[in-house]
Amino acid sequence: MRRIELWGHEVGYLERPGSGPAVVLVHGLGGTHDAWTRLVDHLPTDFHVLAPDLPGHGTSQAGHGDHSVGAAASAIRDLMVAVGLRSATLIGHSLGGGVVMQFAYQFPDRTERLGLIGSAGLGAEVAAGLRIVSTVPGSSAALWGASRAPRRVQETLLRPATWWAASRAETTAITDDLRRLRDSGHRRTFLQTARSVIDHRGQRVDAVSRLPAFADLPMLMVWGARDPVIPPAQQQTAARAAQLPSALAVELRTAGHYPHRTHPAEVAELVTRLVRTTRPYRHDDATWRAALTGDRREADAAPPAPQAPRTLSASAARRPDQISTSNHRSRTRS
């Protein structure tokens, strides 16, 4: 675990140096870099891995009180600059998925690939408990009480939300996030962040309409078929609506909301193939302008953006949609 001071505030992050491609892992609401430790253990040792605590989470100070996804994306950019990463593949879970999509929108020239795991920001639906916490007065006191209850009581309280995940690890992951809210600063950040992205109708941010701007951006979408927080159907609908030719959408049949924690080997395989078998995205203004205006003529007339060479031999560079394992099903579009 490392710490650095940026703009006068301490930022905590996990870094595993490597000589190969850079991968930045962004946790979800109420989480920390710890959410990624099992996944990191399964990633190739040459990957340069960076897993920050978002502002106000874990060991990172809250900063100036802006808990929007845009502010989180800027914080990640600042950390990348500070540690010397020009660009990276960004992988985000839940709220972190919304953050990395916002990062790609704000900093496309620093984005090589995107990975979305049980991602927020792809539709309105979200667990009723999060809508209640984000909108009902007195939520802070309720969270304080729930966070200080014995773990067994917490697991009982969470059972209605996690029973169909059929995974002890799933319940443990959610309980771990709840117990962090015993800290008043973490609880404040949790509520302010939740209220910035969720209201009584559900999620306030829907990035699907902007995904066509990244038609050439290699993308991985992974979700659990038993996710009690963000409905799997929402992920499926977003995957179809995005119509990204370079995207891969994978549903893990026995996973819930935390596939990277409950199925780290499977998710690591997908992330590895995304990185190993695709070229980094290269931003160009003509394609971007065409996406903004809806005019494809300029993009079609523009020369292709320069592409970096593949890092694997031709025999090893399989397309991501050729991945196959026994416990997930793959959804792809041509």
Automatic annotation (TrEMBL):
This is Hydrolase. It holds the Pfam family Abhydrolase_1. Keywords: Hydrolase. It comes from the Bacteria. Residues 286-334 are annotated as: Disordered. One of its GO terms (molecular function) is hydrolase activity. The keyword Hydrolase applies. Signal peptide: none annotated. It comes from Aeromicrobium flavum. Residues 21-263 form the AB hydrolase-1 domain. The lineage of its organism: Bacteria, Bacillati, Actinomycetota, Actinomycetes, Propionibacteriales. One of its GO terms (cellular component) is membrane. The keyword Repeat does not apply.
